[in-house]
Amino acid sequence: MIAMTESFIQKTLQDASDFAKETGMPKLVSIVKDVHKMSPQTFLMNGKRVYNGDRFLWSNPDRSYTFAGVGVSHIFTTDNADGRFQDIEREWKRFNEQTVVHSISYPYGTGPLIVGGFSFDPNKQSTNLWNKFPSAKFVIPAFLYTVVNDQAYFTANVMVHPHKEVHDYIKEVEEAEKMLLNFTTIPEKSSSIMVNRHEIEPDKWKKTIQKATSAIKRDEFEKVVLARELRVTFDQELQLEQITDRLMAEQPTSYVFAIEQGENCFLGASPERLVKKVKDKVYSTCLAGSIRRGKDEEEDGVLGKELLTDEKNLIEHDVVVHMIKEAMNEYCEWIESPSHPALYKTKHIQHLYTPVEGEMKKDHTLLSLVEHLHPTPALGGYPKRTSVEFIRDVERLDRGWYAAPIGWMDVEGNGEFIVGIRSGLVKKNEASLFAGCGIVADSDPESEYEETNIKFNPMLSALGGATHDTH
Ligand SMILES: C=C(O[C@H]1C=CC=C(C(=O)O)[C@@H]1O)C(=O)O
Ligand SMILES: [Mg+2]
């Protein structure tokens, strides 16, 4: 149990209120309580009436850490293409120093934290599709329901302003708590029916693969990741509670995330960590190179073995390992990584997987490492600059936040970022799904096309649409 008694809460709010009245500046008081366990989707559902448009979800692959957030206590955003990581870093640091009340110690993953992300390429001409997702945006959710290793917490992030009284804040938090933690709410379980499926220019996409392999053969770059879009329409509005509920159940080896921005929601089940920081330790993942799952254990094993020795896939993977190790090495005192990839299996696909960990040098931060790594050659290419320019020129797609860093961070600078793949942007009864493939000299457009079809499956399955049969 955590010691945050009513009288302690009252006193902390009173001190913050006195400060606010004296200086005219607000203070953020984060109230954390132990609560009963419930489904994070129930929390999101409960928050829908008041906080529709501002809801968030995050869950680790082993579900050892999950949070659902609703409402917004503070926003950090920038359109500064070149300095977006530093802008967010600076504003969060300043807010932390000036506004957050630090007399409370929070269990990991609770209390004041920011959640959000970046766009893939701030220099690509953006379209209307992603107009709710700027090149960087993070928020402190007003209320969080967090489960850490089976213990559930409720966090209320209260911005204490000069013009309001402490008892009003207490009343508001009590009311919100009652409404949001009502575990008797049953999330709707209606299943939506897909009424239209539209692949965006598949033939032109295959031609861009040829363009890429020719450029690679001319030594313009070593690898590039090219993505395409599948637009699907359903008979009814898509619900983020239902989709994330399915993703969490169906994709036990993937992160599940959702970021709602008004009527739009970007969500998915990504298997790929970009970087996680716990104190001075950092953990990254090289995930690239793919093959389908087998129809039974035996075939699955054969396919896995094939992937582990397939030259084209090993090149795809090695380019990522090389870059991530180099980048981590620069920012770390030491790094450690196995010399051969292992298999990473998700429900629909298996990948080559190499973890990299290290101890971060004192003068670096989680966000500086996110910037240094993004995009890795699993999402962009190698070398970074030429491959991103190639994507900007030839890819017929506004990636928005797809394949970009999505994550959360606490007041100590700990947190985790993943890359937003196996994902889609949902709006009302429509969803744009995205999938890309690492292209190297020997890539064949038809098999890469098939690979993207497999990569659409996690989202298609969660949305209730027919998945692509790969057997
Ligand atoms: C870019 C995607 O996947 C990346 C991650 C793992 C394997 C990949 C591959 O084998 O091509 C991709 O690099 C995507 O799913 O949209
Ligand atoms: Mg591939």
TrEMBL record:
The keyword Isomerase applies. One of its GO terms (molecular function) is isochorismate synthase activity. SUPFAM superfamilies: ADC synthase. Mg(2+) binds at residues 316, 451. The keyword Membrane does not apply. The active site is at residues 223, 272. Residues 203-455 form the Chorismate-utilising enzyme C-terminal domain. GO terms for biological process: menaquinone biosynthetic process; salicylic acid biosynthetic process. Keywords: Isomerase, Magnesium, Menaquinone biosynthesis, Metal-binding. Pathway: Quinol/quinone metabolism; 1,4-dihydroxy-2-naphthoate biosynthesis; 1,4-dihydroxy-2-naphthoate from chorismate: step 1/7; Quinol/quinone metabolism; menaquinone biosynthesis. Its EC number is 5.4.4.2. Its cofactor is Mg(2+). Gene3D superfamilies: Anthranilate synthase. It catalyses: chorismate = isochorismate. Transmembrane segments: none annotated. Belongs to the isochorismate synthase family. Catalyzes the conversion of chorismate to isochorismate. NCBIfam families: isochor_syn (TIGR00543). This is Isochorismate synthase MenF. The gene is menF.
